[in-house]
Amino acid sequence: MRSSDVDALVASADPEYVLWASGTPPLEGAGALRSLLETTFARLRVESVFECEELVVDGRLAVERGWDVQRIQHRDGGEVRTGRQRVTIVTRLGDDGEWRFLWAMVQPGPEATR
Q1: pLDDT computed for residue 111 by the predictor
Q2: Which pLDDT tens digits describe the chain residue by residue (114 residues)?
Q3: Do 46 and 38 contact (CB within 8 A), yes or no?
Q4: In 3D, which of 16, 89, 18 has the Cα closest to residue 50?
Q5: Is residue 102 packed enough to be buried (19+ CB in 10 Å), middle (13-18) or exposed (0-12)?
Q6: Which of 6-41 are b and which e, b meaning 16 or more Cβ less than 10 Å from the residue's Cβ?
Q7: What does CATH list as the number for 6-108?
Q8: DSSP per-residue string spanning 11-28
Q9: What are phi and psi of 95, to 5 degrees?
Q10: pTM for the structure as a whole
Q11: Distance between alpha carbon 96 and the CA centroid of its chain, in Å?
């Protein structure tokens, strides 16, 4: 996120990736993810840290839950905003041995700011 590397972020997602974010339609597939990231990074600088509260691995699937803490600033300057989102992530182990994001669900946390 910090480097705004769209290609690397899309490569970390499974081709069947789905993101459910509160109040928006599901984002499905690498093309939709690429579009979202390109639009976001054109306007914003984003730093993201994941605070994992639990990780469960079973075979080729893993589930993580925790908090995504983001620091966001418009590219033209201005105030840096911090937000917290409750996140549940499912990753899948590919045949190439790499873990990729399969599904994610995010909800604004009680401390989120917009």
Answers
A1: 57
A2: 878 899 999 999 999 999 999 889 999 999 999 999 999 999 999 999 999 999 999 999 999 999 999 999 999 999 999 999 999 999 999 999 999 999 999 998 765 444
A3: no
A4: 89
A5: buried
A6: beebbeebbeebbbebeeeeebeeeeebeebbeeeb
A7: 3.10.450.50
A8: HTEEEEEEEEETTSPPEE
A9: -60, -20
A10: 0.84
A11: 22
Q: Reduced to 3 states, what is the DSSP secondary structure of residue 2? A: coil
Q: Which two tokens stand for residue 44?
A: 């914003």
* Contact criterion met (CB below 8 Å) for 94 and 111: no
Question: Whole-angstrom Cα distance, residue 35 to residue 19?
Answer: 13
Domain spans of the chain, in order of start: 6-108
